[in-house]
Design brief:
Helices cover about 0% and strands about 35% of the residues. By secondary structure, the chain is mostly beta strands. It has a 4-stranded antiparallel β-sheet, with no helix packed on it. Strands 5-6-7-8 form a 4-stranded antiparallel β-sheet, with no helix packed on it. A 4-stranded antiparallel β-sheet has the order 11-12-13-14, with no helix packed on it.
């Protein structure tokens, strides 16, 4: 899910794949399957079958990758950078395929909000709070998208910034909303060539960051480039770029981090 929008649709109980950067190699399936690229698709965990959606979306490719699902509006939400318009939010109604795309202007500590490159970054949705959290790691800024008003706001600077290297703006940040504890978890990696993680936690109620001590009893460096939060287990799950699956609980029922 680090190259396309991959979301869970709780209304239809389907996964949606929204086109992002998609390679194509039929391999051993050549002659036995149909290649589909650049089209939204669904996948059912019950039937284990794919289906092509009855509508198309744009942009595709490098423009937009990640997405989140809002069950209240039955919409997929994603962000991308348009060369002429700048930062653009896109709401896709999954029932009709209708798209709404507001663009943004405004100043955030001397930097125009519409200059934020967010097409390569995770988006963290807080459904109950009706907001989406986004991080622009090179500018070092945390943004808040209000779902109902469809407005983007500068929230705070981040505690660290990523260097603007040769891969910029492909410097994906992974903000993850912890819906149990009401905090934003940011497993920060300096770059994909240096995937060691430092965990930062943002508290929206007091607008403060904290750096987690990241106690790892076996002494292994924590690494990964894909993350998700499991509200049932109250745990952040981190994986990728190493043989381990990392599980982190910000606060256990007894109040201890694990």
């Amino acid at each position: 899910p680090d190259e396309v929008g991959w979301i869970w649709d709780s209304k239809r109980e389907l996964f949606w794949m929204l086109p992002g950067y998609m390679g194509a190699d039929m391999g051993r399936c050549k002659g036995r399957a149909t290649l589909v690229r650049g089209k939204p698709m669904t996948w059912s965990a019950k039937t284990r079958e794919w289906a092509v959606a009855p509508f198309e979306v744009a942009p595709r490719g490098e423009w937009a990758k990640f997405a989140v699902y809002d069950p209240e509006t039955d919409s997929a939400i994603r962000f991308y950078y348009h060369g002429g318009k700048g930062l653009t939010a896109q709401m896709i109604n999954l029932a009709t395929g209708e798209r709404m795309e507001p663009t943004y202007r405004g100043d955030a500590n001397g930097e125009q909000i519409n200059n934020a490159r967010l097409g390569e970054e995770y988006a963290a949705i807080d459904v109950e709070g009706r907001r989406v959290w986004l991080i622009e790691p090179v500018q070092g800024r945390l943004y808040r998208y209000d779902i109902d008003s469809k407005k983007v706001h500068y929230e705070a600077d981040t505690p660290v910034k990523n260097e603007k290297g040769e891969n910029w703006p492909w410097a994906s940040a992974m903000p993850i909303w912890d819906s149990v504890n009401g905090v934003l978890l940011w497993p920060h990696i300096p770059s994909f060539s240096k995937p060691a993680v430092t965990l930062y936690v943002y508290h929206p109620d007091r607008k403060e960051w904290e750096k987690d001590a990241m106690k790892q009893p076996d002494g292994h460096p924590v690494k990964g480039n894909v993350a998700v939060f499991d509200p049932v287990q109250n745990a952040l799950v981190l994986m990728g770029r190493n043989p381990y699956l990392w599980v982190y609980r910000y606060a256990s029922p007894g109040g201890q981090r694990q």
